[in-house]
Amino acid sequence: MNTSLLYPRVTATRRVVSLDGMWKFQFDPKQEGVAAGWTAGLPDACSMPVPSSFCDIFTDKDSREYTGDFWYETDFLVPGEWKGREVVIRFGSVTHKARVFLNGVEICSHVGGFLPFNAVVTDAVKYNEVNHLAVLANNELSETMLPCGLTQTLSNGKKVSAPYFDFYNYAGIQRPVKLLCLPKESVVDYEVKFALNGADADVDYTVKTTGDGCVGVELLDAEGKLVAESCGKTGKLHVKDAKLWNVHASYLYKIVIKIWNGDDVVDEYYDTLGIRTFEVKGDKLLLNGKHVYLRGFGKHEDSDIRGRGLDLVTVKRDYECLKWVGANCFRTSHYPYAEEMYYMADEEGFLIIDETTAVGCMESTMNFLAANQGTGKKAGFFEKETTPQLLAHHREVLHDMITRDKNHASVIAWSILNEPQCTSVGTEDYFKNLFDYAHELDVQKRPRTYAIVMMSLPNTSRGQQFADIISLNRYYGWYAMGGTGIVDAEAAFRKEMDGWNQVRNGRPVIFTEYGADTLSSEHKLPSVMWSQEYQNEYLEMNNRVFDSYDFVQGELMWNFADFQTTEGIMRVNGNKKGAFTRQRQPKDVAYVLKNRWEKLPVDYKGDK
Ligand code: BDP
């Protein structure tokens, strides 16, 4: 089984063919497809673009809200020259579950909707002939997989999703599908860690392959000139006068990994590589040993009609907006994003806090959008009978996220959960298991964090002890003490911050969320909540608080752009806390942010 999560590349030894385009699609509410032979052909299919979420493409509510099994199918040809090599279909993501059938034979299954997986079809494909690919997907939510939620049944028998989280449960084949031809002996993975010695740098690498062939590794500079080389599955590349990767000043080397058999190259893989170090030292964040203050947003993969489907135009526009507003960082709330996002961050010099899909690990009033979940009384999310199952899945997600993303210069920290219920005893075992695992998986030992919910306070949070960076999601002046109450909100906020100072044990605090819903259509003097004026005032109050505490080392506003959520009385066709509209146009607050962030030195609050 080829489990390589390397980004697909065409090289002298590898071929990649895109399978994206118009596929066929059909809902399967009665789960009859497998028994009825739909793997050979869908009886009543419509066209559906891949990649995309299917939801917002439809004009009827039943289709948009469809919850249950659904099918995709397409045909493709495998060139005869590929015989004797490894043939793999690589899915960027299928949300949330998938079973893959080739020419009627089940090849593999996968759980988790935001990371890639491979279907190895070497023995199932017909060469120089048309092959039939069918994917049976499912978008139901549960408490044993991530993100957490429920699947409910309406009185008319239709299933609906009840997410424990605040974003629309978009589903489908949301990222590219690629057909790969690989050598039988191939590079499966590589990892790097860096040490800076004066002007030079050492790159320690480890390469994993499927065989015993000799491994050679070369490092080329941006002009393609060889600057270091080494051989063996582990080794060191010594780079003289290394050009370091930096915020808004990226420098990317190219690492080329080859497997040799005598003079023949058996496999070749390459990747871009930024040399940098990142660490938490005392309450400071150090990039290449120099202090950096984070500014930016929590984001979503979310855009009109496409839903969460990868849209490169949106990806590019987002980076243009991020640069314009003076941001240097974002969190991939609340799931690992498409790889193209990370490669652009490497290129543009942005810092990423990479988050797993662990959102909704709580039953409380915060789950206001999930019908029947707003009791506010339940506790002990990590003490259920089903917790071991959830933990096993969470470990898989963490494993695959770190495996996929560890070599990106842009990725500076792992966010292991967002707003979990973390005040009961069971939290500790659950957290320890995952925080330890993250360190085990990451050779760079990047800092680990999780976003701490409002109700989890310095004296009640049992999870914060495991974090290398304390990340707070706080809404003083919005969910608590909004409007004229903002004066009290500021006082309460400061009181809580004094509390964190008592328990932080020298660690830095960053804000992974703060924000106020704002309709881009609303202006009001004096301000009222939901008006653009109020969002500005809310922000100014928050900024005052951030500026008064030196241990606050970053501010990531919620959210970069307005985004779609489940409908409900708390949301006006989605969450409107964006600095930009869903169409990526600035609200007034974007200018307030720009004005602040462009003036804040990179090393704001660093040692003088
Ligand atoms: C936090 C969540 C985030 C929500 C946000 C909000 O982490 O997903 O969208 O609050 O309410 O609870 O806007």
What does it look like?
There is one protein chain. The chain is 18% helix and 31% strand. The longest helix is centred in the middle third of the chain and has 19 residues, at 387-405. The strands form 8 sheets. Strands 25-26-27-28-29-30-31-32 form an 8-stranded parallel β-barrel, surrounded by 4 helices. A 6-stranded antiparallel sheet has the order 3-2-4-10-7-8, with no helix packed on it. It starts with 14 loop residues before the first strand and ends in a 9-residue tail after the last helix. Residues 365-377 have low confidence and may be disordered. It has 3 domains: 15-182, Jelly Rolls, CATH 2.60.120; 187-273, Sandwich (Immunoglobulin-like); 278-599, Glycosidases (TIM Barrel, Alpha-Beta Barrel). It is built from 8 helices and 32 strands. It has 608 residues and is of the alpha+beta class. The radius of gyration is 24 Å and the shape is globular. The structure holds beta-D-glucopyranuronic acid (BDP). The site of beta-D-glucopyranuronic acid (BDP) has 11 residues, from loops.
